[in-house]
Each structure stands twice: as C-alpha cells, then as structure tokens.
Write a structure and sequence with these properties.
mainly alpha, elongated, membrane, EMP70, transmembrane
C-alpha cells in the first residue's frame, strides 16, 4: 500500500494517540494509516512539489527539465490555496524507506530554523513599546484629561470663551470629513480584512491551518474574505450615512469593487508575467473564472445585503452639535501639522512587527517554512493595541492644538505603518535576496504592493475606530452650553 508523506513541518497543538492503531491525528489533516512491517509492504509513495531558486521568484514544475519523471504521472487534487501559490503536486518514481522514525522526520527542518529566542526578543521588544504607550495613555486619561473635564465643567461661560484646548472645537469636531465617501469605503474594506485576518490567525494558532496542509491558510483567507462582505457593506453604509452622504448606490459599488478590483488587477498582471515565463505558479484560466464567480456571485451580493441594513439604521448620534460656520484653525507648530504627525504615528506600530516581518518575508521569498503562528497571533494583538494607543495620543495632541480635522488623520496615522512596511520590503529585496531578472523583480514588487494595500486598510481601520471611540467618549462627558 502506498501513501503520501507530507513535506512540511506541522506545529502539533493537539495529539491524540490511539492505543488500537499507530495512526496520528494532526489538526487540519485527515488521519493517515501506514502498513505495518511485513503486512503489505512498508514503502511510501513520494510526492514532489516544484523547483525554486534563490535567484528567481518563478517556480517551475518538478519535471520541467525532463528528469525524475514518473511514468504514471498521477496528480492529487489541489485546493484553491495550492493553486494560488503555484503548488503543482506530482508523483515521484522513487520510494522512501521508513528508517527515520515518524516523530523525528522534521528534525532537519527544525535545526535549520532560526532560534526561537529571536521570537521572544521580538515579543519583549513589542511589549516594551506597548507598556510605554499604555503609560502615556493612562497619564492622559487619569490626569490631564480628567483635570480638563473638571475645569471645563466648572468654569462659567465668560471664562470658557477665553479658554483654549480641545473643548473649544466641540462645535466642529464632528463636522463631516472631506471625501467621506472614500473614507467610508476604506473603512468597510478594512473591517472585512480585520475580521478575516483575526479568524485566520486564530485557526492557524490552534493548528487547523498548519503548513503541512498545503494551501489551507490561503484557502481559508479567501473563503472568509468572500463571506465577510456583509460587515464590509454595513460599516461602509452606516459611516457614510453618518457623514451625511446620499449617493448610497455609489457607496455600495465602491465598497464591493474598488479595493478588491485593485488587488485583482495587480494579481492578474502578475499572473500574465508568470504565464509568459512558463512558470508553474501561473493560475489556470478556470481558476481565475472561479475567483471572479466567488467575488461577483457571493461577495458582492453579501456586501449589498450589509449595505441595506447599514442604510436602514439611523446615523450614529454625536454627543455634541455641529456649528454651521466652521471654526478657524490657529497656526500649528511643526509637530502638530498633519504630515509630521502622520509620519511619526506609524513608527511605533512598525517597531512592534519588523522582526516578525523578517520571518514572514523569509517564508515567502526565501523558501523557509513558517510555523510559529502562536508568536504571530500575539504580535497581531500587540499591533492592535499599539496602533490604537499611538493614534489616540496624537489625536488628543491635535485636538488640544484646536485642529479638529481628525477623521482622515486618524486613518492615515496608523495606516502609514504600511509605508514603513514597503520601505522595509525594498531594503529586504536589496540586502537579503539574490533575485535577478526583470520578471522576478516585477513580481516581487507587484505582490508587495498587494501586501502594502491590505496592511494599509487594516491598520488604518484600527486607528480610525480607536479615535472614533476616544473622541465620542471625551465629548460626551463635558457640559456644552
């Protein structure tokens, strides 16, 4: 009897040993039984994947150079994630003996992996940043902000006219932003990406999307993205209505088509390059049609459903009224101007993830196995906290300087982390990789731009909703005449 041996390391979180047989159960994988020695043979069929090179990001089929071909050429079924990643599984004419014990089959991979002490250093570095930001936010909340609220609630109207600070912009702080349509669309897409990422990482942390189950991670992410069109439409429509928008049809269509369309167009161009180069990573035409069917047949209708319920709900009620005439913003210092504040806002969140980012880029471009999803999920939570706290701090400083344009700034402050990600990806390309050739270079930066866009929407949405909660909270506890 011939059975497949998977060629990737599996982080085993749950291991059930059955006394009646010698089989394993790995989360995310179907149980596999092997013949006992002397009872039907002890050879296992080998499956080969693809040929890679450190000088190219173009993978090719294993037998493209006309060697090691199997006369039978049986191809096992491949899931959506394997097809998107260019996994072309084929049979090998060779068998593998089982002289290596089953429990020790991945030891050579573990030896080649970076030591986990680096991961713990990354976590400790991120926690120090979080503690620093948490201390700053606590100081603002418990001391400065508390004193401000007490003073504003005690002074009479004449004294209030002479005061300066964040209370003086209460009549303008909830004035709808410019380009509110685009902001609401970005926030709807960011919410969809956030929920998709959280669920995917949580399942991977439990072991159900382990690297041994090839393509499972990408398949799960794509399916979740398709099914999460409803919250995207709801958030976008509800915020757009709060901004006073009336072009609800345009809002729905942009939410369903704008950002996914940019990603698909980039992905389609990259696929054309792969097809011209004859790479095994080129997506078949049928799979592209299936992706479009999932997009327009499931995701778009679900976005329409979410938008319908979002527009049926009343606009979010603000704690203070908005004046008819906008207040003039005083001259700002260098550090409270929009661009310097946005640039500074992305530094700390990026500082929490750059070490983990190195391992992720290694797994994508340097053909290393990534299996430490527990660390990744922890860094994900730290990133949420850091983006929220850094954006709230800068928002408070700008409001104290009587600059009430916080809507877009809150989104761009944390979203600017994606710019640092792109800069790091450029540095990684020139310092760590040995890629040559125009096609490989275009593919690297093409896929990097998809990552940057997704990360921009994700981090920007976190910062916006953190500031939205903060601004609503502080203006709901002050007395406004």
């Amino acid at each position: 009897m011939k059975r497949r041996i998977d060629s990737a390391f599996v982080p085993v979180f749950l291991l059930f040993a059955l006394h009646s047989c010698s089989a394993f159960y790995l989360p995310g994988l179907a149980p596999v039984s092997f013949c006992e020695e002397g009872k039907g043979g002890d050879d296992c069929q080998l499956f080969v994947n693809r040929l890679d090179s450190v000088e190219s990001v173009l993978p090719y089929e294993y037998d493209v150079f006309d060697f090691c071909k199997d006369a039978e050429e049986k191809r096992p079924s491949e899931n959506l994630g394997q097809v998107l990643f260019g996994e072309r599984i084929e049979t090998s004419p060779y068998k593998e003996n089982n002289s290596i014990k089953w429990a020790s089959r991945w030891d050579y991979i573990l030896v080649s992996m970076p030591h986990t002490n680096i991961q713990w250093f990354s976590i400790m570095n991120s926690l120090v940043i979080v503690l620093f930001l948490s201390g700053m936010v606590a100081m603002i909340m418990l001391r400065t902000l508390h004193k401000d609220i007490a003073r504003y609630n005690q002074v009479d109207q004449e004294d209030a006219q002479e005061e300066s600070g964040w209370k003086q912009v209460h009549g303008d702080v909830f004035r709808p932003p410019r380009k509110g349509m685009l902001l609401s669309v970005f926030l709807g897409q960011g919410t969809q990406i956030f929920i998709m990422t959280f669920i995917t990482l949580f399942l991977a942390c439990l072991g159900f999307l382990s690297p041994a189950n090839r393509g499972a991670l990408m398949t799960c992410a794509v399916v979740l993205w398709v099914l999460l069109g409803t919250p995207a439409g709801y958030v976008s429509a509800r915020l757009y209505k709060t901004f006073g928008g009336e072009k609800w049809k345009t809002n729905v269509l942009l939410t369903a088509l704008l950002c996914p369309g940019i990603v698909f167009a980039d992905f389609f161009l990259m696929n054309l390059i792969l097809w011209v180069e004859g790479s095994s990573a080129a997506i078949p035409f049928g799979t592209l049609v299936a992706i479009l069917a999932l997009w327009f047949g499931i995701s778009v209708p679900l976005t329409l459903v979410g938008a319908y319920f979002g527009f049926k709900k009343p606009a979010i009620e603000q704690p203070v009224r908005t004046n008819q005439i906008p207040r003039q913003i005083p001259e700002q210092s260098f550090f409270t101007k929009p661009i310097p504040g946005i640039i500074m806002g992305g530094i700390l969140p990026f500082g929490c993830i750059f070490i983990q980012l190195f391992f992720i880029l290694n797994s994508i471009w340097s053909h290393q196995m990534y299996y430490m999803f527990g660390f990744l999920f922890l860094v994900f939570i730290i990133l949420l906290i850091t983006c929220s706290e850094a954006t709230i701090l800068l928002c408070y400083f700008h409001l104290c300087a009587e600059d009430y344009h916080w809507w877009w700034r809150s989104f761009l402050t944390s979203g600017f982390t994606a710019v640092y990600l792109f800069i790091y990806a450029v540095h990684y390309f020139f310092s760590k990789l040995q890629i040559i050739g125009a096609a490989s270079t275009i593919l690297y930066f093409g896929y990097t731009m998809i990552m940057v866009l997704i990360f921009f929407l994700f981090t920007g949405t976190i910062g916006f909703f953190a500031c939205f909660w903060f601004v609503n909270k502080i203006y709901s506890v002050v007395k406004v005449d």
